[in-house]
Amino acid sequence: MRARKKMDSVSPILEQILYGGSSVSMNLIAITRDIPEEQRMFKAQGLNNCILFKYPNFDDRDLDDNDPIAEDDELEGGERPVETGIYVPHNAKSPESGGIAVYLRSRNSQTLLEEQFGIKHGPQENGIIGDMKMLSMIDDVPSLDAFLLKTCFEAEKVNVDPRHWLISNEEDHQLRRLIRARIEPIVRKALSGGQSSAGSIERFLEAIWNPNLEEAGLFVSAFGIERSEADTIFSAWKGTTFYEYQLRRIAPRARTILTWLKSRECIPVDIRMHKPYETQLLMHIEKVGKLLETTLLDIRTILSDYETSFSAFMNGQPEPFRDYLRSIRSRYWLLGYCVSALTSVAHLDARCMKNTPSRKLYFEAMQKLLRQFDVALDRRREQKGAL
Fold first, then answer.
1. 253 C-beta neighbours (distance < 10 Å), count
2. What is the DSSP code (8-state) at residue 383?
3. Residue 141 DSSP symbol
4. Which of 55-64, 98-107, 304-313 has the lowest mean pLDDT?
5. pTM, rounded to two decimals
6. pLDDT tops 90 at residue 188
7. How many Å apart are CA 246 and CA 206, to the nearest integer?
8. In angstroms, rounded to a whole number, what is the distance separating the alpha carbons of residues 89 and 95?
């Protein structure tokens, strides 16, 4: 692919990878620049010169269903509607100039990973097989938020140089306190019927971060759920709580953008110069507004169900919360996608409006922003080998 100089010629998907924010992309080129080779995440150094990214791939039936959680039982079988890709730029110093993408769940991914990075499946070869374990763990998280990846790797006892996680110790500790505070009342209520000491409650709370502890299995089995599901449920529970707090920061901006898209303020200042395309633009604005509205509605539904089941449990009715835990994995993945999409939209909006506080855009700038929003909110993204 020939290098392209102008950002206007960069594909919307590549723009999303480069500028969609840290929830949807992890720029290992920048992250590992100051990390010695032997301490980098991957043994295959080619992987450390790539950008990992997340992209949605929801089943068609989910798109037509007004209830995003209606297919819970089927989703629990292992379907993950957000997938992981590896963007390999032709020139690591100029990633916007184009490159290729390798998708971890594509049929020929094993062949491509071996050809591109030398990663082989099967018997361990110079430690390289460890890279597949790393990629698999990353693919088991709905977004690339540093906190979720860090806690995932810690739970699996996989050591990674902390410089890979773009999160401060202070922010990490604060998030852990918030998650503990959200989960602790449920643990205490669940144990209130027995002779539980402060020490045993602490061990149950410790199981949040270490699902291998016996207490994690005991907790889920108390809800009539198989102990083997403890890891999956605790990971999803932590993640749901993380996204809930992340949403508090991002929702006001998302609502501001939605209000703007529904007002005359978003009409380009030079619309008269582009009269033949006015109807098409207005239809695109309406479409993006509906996508944004749907995303906010899905989040509201998931969190409202959580609050309802939580309140019922605290009032002595455990059944709704048990049902919520049983379906938490599918809700977690949808919530992760929705919050990441909103974060990306807010990130792209801030980047576009940085020098335009009036939010009055020209036609071409508005077209480009709508195209970026569209990709960020699209639930069924086409895979492309070349970007």
1. 16
2. P
3. S
4. 55-64
5. 0.89
6. no
7. 22
8. 5
